[in-house]
Specification:
Elements (H helix, E strand, L loop, with lengths): L11 E2 L2 E2 L47 E6 L1 H4 L8 E4 L3 H9 L5 E6 L1 H7 L24 E4 L3
Parallel strand pairs: 3-4, 3-5, 5-6
Antiparallel strand pairs: 1-2
Helix pairs in contact: 2-3
């Protein structure tokens, strides 16, 4: 309420200069601002911020990425989502892309053709693997995902 605020010089209340640029005449009570500070720029009180979290990845955990291997037309759009796109028009290009995957790749999305081209790299033991990954080269640190044809 205006009567409860300590009055300073004209145009100033207890909270400082008027925000709107309007200065009331001397002796007139200052009105409360209609809108406070922007919620987007205001820092919430400590109890409302939640637990502290590190700015980057947790200690000991590297940031992982996704790669996509296959026909250039089918895989190029994945670049918009930040995936590493590896166009492969044939078996040799698909195998070269797989061999050149950086160590920070955790998921590899493969077109059906690329999965078929890579199947020969796994050897006979991997050909019996379950879960739609039969015949794909084994890398413990990579989850392969095969797109439908």
């Amino acid at each position: 309420m205006p009567g409860n605020r300590a009055a300073g010089p004209a145009g100033q209340g207890a909270s400082g200069p008027a925000r709107s640029g309007f200065r009331p005449p001397d002796g007139a009570a200052e009105e409360e601002p209609a809108v406070g500070p922007s919620a987007a720029t205001a820092t919430p009180p400590a109890g409302l911020r939640g637990p502290a979290s590190p700015a980057g990845p947790a200690a000991g955990h590297a940031k992982s990425r996704v790669a996509v291997i296959g026909d250039g037309v089918r895989v190029s759009g994945y670049a918009l989502a930040g995936a590493l796109v590896c166009p492969a028009a044939n078996r040799e290009e698909a195998r070269a892309a797989w061999a050149a995957l950086p160590p920070d790749i955790a998921v590899v999305i493969l077109t059906a053709d690329a999965a078929a081209w890579l199947a020969g790299l796994a050897g006979p033991a991997a050909a019996t693997a379950a879960g739609g990954r039969a015949g794909l080269p084994r890398r413990r640190d990579v989850l392969p995902v095969v797109l439908p044809p």
